[in-house]
Amino acid sequence: MQKHLLLLLLLFTVIMNAQETGEDELGSWHMYFGMNRISDKLSIHTEGQLRYYEAGKNFNQLLLRTGLNYHIKNEAIATFGYAYIDTDTTFEEFPEDIDFTEHRIFEQFILNNKVWELNFEHRYRLEQRFIDFGANNDVQHRARYRLQVMVPLTDIFFLNFYDEVFLNLQGNTFDQNRLYAAIGLNVTDNLSVQSGFLKNHFSTRNFDRLQVAVFYNPDFRKKK
Q1: Structural domain harbouring 106
Q2: Mean pLDDT of 81-108
Q3: Where does the signal sequence lie (predicted)?
Q4: SS3 assignment for 75-92
Q5: Do the beta carbons of residue 215 and residue 192 sit within 8 Å?
Q6: Which residues lie closer than 8 Å to 73 by C-beta, 6 or more apart?
Q7: What are residue 207's phi and psi, to 5 degrees?
Q8: What pTM value is reported for the model?
């Protein structure tokens, strides 16, 4: 009898924790990405993301990112940039909610290659994270690697897949892993949209997220 009661208590605890973290909800990320070309070698990265615990509601995170890209050649891009992140850490509203803001500096290198009709992208990123928890501050360092492959279906439609691993450079090494699949639409030569599904795995939690993204890459170079 005691074993059954213990099992029921454990199951109840797991269910309650899932409800409090939002793991049982399908959240959504709404995103914009831009590469604004200003010269043959330079472009400006612009990015904005709104992330929700539930589809289109229950705010989780705001992320704003920008950076300067140096185009070494068509297949290689180096970036130095900055990001601002505002995070609500709780799915449910509590008086003792722990929210935090983060100022982040990052260095990035992207390498592209093509195999048959498949377009591969390798993205390597280092991050220096200055986190303000209110009562205290912390500086953390993280490395990220993303392998992405885009599969053209027609001149208009394509598929996009990626897996990205996040590694802490202090404390526990594993931070998170993101597995993504989407279908995309080329609206114009410099405008595309994607809609897909993201599996965000942490060491103790897993989240499912719908994603809608707009990619706009205007060219501001002077026409010769």
Answers
A1: 2-216
A2: 85
A3: 1-18
A4: CEEEEEEEEEEEEECCCC
A5: yes
A6: none
A7: -125, 140
A8: 0.87
